[in-house]
User: What shape does this take?
Amino acid sequence: MIRIKALGGLCVYGDDGRPQSGAAAQPRRMAVLALLAHAGDRGVMRDRILALLWPDTEEERARNNLAQSLYALRRDLGEDTIVGTKELRLNPDGISSDVADFRSALTRGDNARAASVYTGPFLDGFHVPGASELTRWVDDERQALSHEHRRVLKSLASAATAAGDTDGAVAWWRKLAAADPLNPRVAIGLMEGLAAAGDRAGALDHARIYEALLEQELDLPPDREVVQLAKRLRDSALPVEAAATVATIEATTPMSNRAAPGIRATVSPLTPNEERDHEPTDGASDAAIATESVDGPPVFSPVAPPAVVATAPGAAPSRRGSRISQWGVAATFVAVAVVAATWYVRGSRSSTAMPVVAVGYIAGYELGERSSELTAPLGDLLATNLARVPGLRVVSAGRMLELIARAGSDTSARALKAAATAAARAAGATELVDGALYRRADRQLRLDLRRVDVATGAIVDARTVEGPDLFALVDSGTARLATRLGVNAPAGSVADVTTRSLAAYRLYVEAMRRYYATDEVAAHRLLSAAVAEDSTFALATYYWAVTTPNAEVAAERMARAVRLSAAASDRERLTIRAGVAFHLSAPELGSIAETLATRYPDEVHGHFYRGTAFSMAEDYLAAVPHLRRAIALESLATDARSGAPAGPGPCPSCDARNRLVFEYLSLDSLAAAERETKAWIRSAPTSEIAWVQLSYVLDALGRPGDALAALDSARHLENGGSTEVQNAVVSHWLRVGDYARAEELQRVRLANASALDQRQALWYLAIALRDQGRVNEALAMARRFRTISARIEPSPGPGGVPQSATMEAVVLDAMGRYRAAAALFDSIAHWRVAGMAPSQYARNRVWMSAHAANARAAMGDTTGLPELADTMAAYGSRSGLGRDQRLHHEVRGLILAARGDDNAAMSEYRASIRSLTTGYTRTNVVLARSLLRLGRGAESVPVLQAALRAGVEASALYVSRTELHELLARSWEAAGRSDSAAAHFRIAARVWSAGDPPYRARSAAAAARAVALTR
Assistant: This one.
C-alpha cells in the first residue's frame, strides 16, 4: 500500500515504508498527489490541477505536462493508484493518505484518531516555484485543517476535564497550546488543568511564557483573565507549602547547581505587571544574572508568596527597553526560587531523561544593520558550549548547517526558523533551543532562550541572560540550561575552547555556511581571514586545511590544527583529529573514530570514519556495519525532512555509500555492489557520483551497454557531465577496449585552455597508448603531463622527484626500460615536501618502492630487494593502509620466485593480498605467473579475471589490460580451454597490432596462437 503523508510536510512512502524517489519525489508531481489526497473521494478536475500548477503555461503544453506527470506517477507507484480521466482521484485500494484518514476520523467523530493522524500543518514547508495559485490554495487549506485540528484538541481536553482525567486533560491542553500559543482561552485551560493536577508552579510558568510570547509576537499586554488566574493561583499558595518546597529543593539540588554566595533570592508578593516593572531595591542589576556563580547554597529570605527577583549587592539598577521581549525573564527569576523548585520536582520531564538538544534560529532585535554578525555566531557558540555539558547530547553546529543548507536559499527569518526546526527533527533532536538577542540602551546584550519540544512544538522552558558580549551570554545561558536540566555546567568559558576573537568567530561561521553550500572557494577565503584574526583558532584552522586545494600545504595546516586541538572542546578535538587522520591515511584513525562514534553516536562522521578505518585496513566485512550506520542516520534525516532529496553541500551519507560499494567491489561481490548502488540512486536520483559508480559496477559485471546508459544519466545531470563524469566515460571506453573512442575524447579535451583538462587528457592518453603498445607516444604524453603538473606542484626536497612523474615511470616499465623505471620509481619514493605528514611519506615510500621492486625483478636484479622489503615493512607500519603494511610480502615473493621457489613465493604473494579486484594488480600478475610455472593454469584464471574487473587507474594502473588478456589467454590454454584462450589472444593481437615494433611482434604471436588453438 502506497502512503501519502501531507500533514507536517509532504512525502510518499512505498510498500516497504521507505520514502519514494523518482516521479514521487519531483515537486510538481508530488503536488499532484497532494491535490488528489486532499480531494479524497471527490476527486479533482484536470482543469483545476492545470490552473493551480501551470497557471501561466500555454494550455496544450500544460496538458502535456500533466499527462507526463500522471504517466510517471503511475509508472513508479502502480498503474492502478490514480484512476479517472477527466476527473482524477486516488484508488483507495492501492494508495492511502493521512489527510483522508484525518477527514474520515472527523466524519466518524473519532477525535482521538484525528488528533493522532494530524502530525503538523498541511504541506508544511512544501513549495512549488512559480505556482502562486497553488501557494494561495495551500495557505487556505492549511488554515482550515489547522482550525479543525484545534477544535479536535479542545474537544478532547474538555472531555478529559469533565471526566476528571487531569493527566489526560493536561496532555491535550499542552498540545492545543503548542498549536495555538497566543489564545488566552487555551492558556487558561492549560493553567487550570495544571493546577487541578497539583502543578500550580507549572501553571504559573505557562502564564509567564504566554505573556512573553504575546509581547514578542504581537507587542500586546497579557489577557486580563490570564493575569487574574495567575494571581489567584499565586495567592492560594500556603506559606507552609512554600517552606516545604524550599526544603525539598535544598535537599535535592546538587551543590554545584545552587545560587552563588552573595546572590540573594528575595520573595515578594508582586503581580505579573509589577514584576515586569520591578527595580531591585538594593542596587541589583539584571546583568548580574549573566555573571552569577553557581557555587554554594542559596540564601532565602523569610517565606512569602512566590514571586522572585534575583539581586546581588553592589550592582547598578537598569530599566527594560520599550521593545525588549519578556519571555524567559520571569522564568529566569523563577529558576532560583520556590516556584521553580516545585516545577523542577513535579515537572513533566524526568531529570533522568536527558534530551537530545539542537540549537535553532536566534532572532536579532534592536541590533542595528549588522544583526546577523551577532546572531549567527551566537547559535554556533551555544551549540559548542552545550556539547561540553556532561551527559547532554547536542547536535553539532556543523550537522545543523549541513541539514539547513538542503532546505534552499530562502534566508528570511521565517524560512530559517522553519529550516532549523526541520533540521533538528532530521538530526534526531528531542528539544530545540532557540531565542532572541537584544541590545539594551546601555549596550549590554540580552538573550532570551527557550527550550521547545521538537515533537509537539510545546515550550518546555524559558530563560533570560544578559552580558557584555556573546561569550558571556553563551556561558551564562549554558549554565542556566544545565541547571534547569539538573546537571553541572561546564568548567571555564566557551572562549577557552574556541577563540576569544568575535571577529574570527564571525568569519568562521560565515565560512561554514558557504562550505555547506558547496562554495569552497569563498569558504577558504573567509577561513584564511579567520585564522589571520586568531591563529590559535583550532576549528577554523582545520577547515582552512580541508578547503586548501594543494595537498601538501593542506597537510601542513592539518598538522597545525591537530596541535591547536589540544585546547579545543572534546567533540571539536576528536572531530579535528579524526578528519586529519582520514585525510592523511594515518594509522590512528580507527581508535579516534571509535571514540568519536561512541561519545557522539548521533553524528554521522564518527561512524563513517570508523567504517573507513576498517576499509583502509582492508578489513572489508568489518567496515560494512559502521558504514550502514552512517547511511541509516542520514536516511532517518531524509525521512524527517519528509523525504526531501539531498540538496547542495557535503553529503556524508554519499561518502558512506560510495565506500560501501567499494567494500563489496573489494570482496568481489558484484551483485551486492550493484544492489547497493541502485539503492543509492533510489535515495538520491540526482547524485552524479552514484550513477558513475553504477557504471563502474556494470562494466565489472560485463554489461557495457548498461554501464554506458548509467553514464548518460550522469552526463544529463550536468549538461555534459563534470570532470569526474568525463573521466568515467573515458575509463569505460578503455575498459571495453575501444581505444579509438577514448583517444578521440581526450584529444578534444587536450585542445581546451584549462590546465586541469589538459592534465586529465594527457593522463588518459598515456594509459590508452601504453595499453596499445604505442609506448613512445605514451612516453611523450607522460612527460608533457609531468611538465604541466610541475607548474602547480610544490618543489620536492633534495633527491626527490614529484609524484607527477609516476606515469613516466609506468611507461618506461612498459617499454622494457626497467632500470630507468626502477630509478625513477625510487626517486619518487623519496619525494618529500615541507609539512608532509609522516603517514603520507610512509604511504608514498612503500607504494613507489613496490613498483621499483617489480621493475628490478623484471630485469633480473634482486640483489637489493631483501633490504628494500625490510624498509617497506618498517614504513608500512606508519601508514593507515593495510595494503602498505603488507606490500613487503609481495617483494619477498619476487625474491623467492627469482630463486625458483614458486610455492614459497605464492605464500608471500597471498600474504600481501586482501582483495584480488581492488588490490595491487601487479601482485595478481606475478601470482598468476608462479601458478603457470607450476602447471596450475586453472588456478591462475580467476586471479587474472579479478584484475580485469578492476579499473584502469589507482592500483590497477601498473599493469596493461592488454597484458592481462595475453596472460589470461595462456592461463586458459594451460587449463585446457582452447576457445577461451583464443578469444583473449585475439584481443591482445587486435590491440597491439598498431603498437611499436616489440608489441607488433607480440600481436603477431598472439594472432598465430589464436589460429592454432581454433584449428
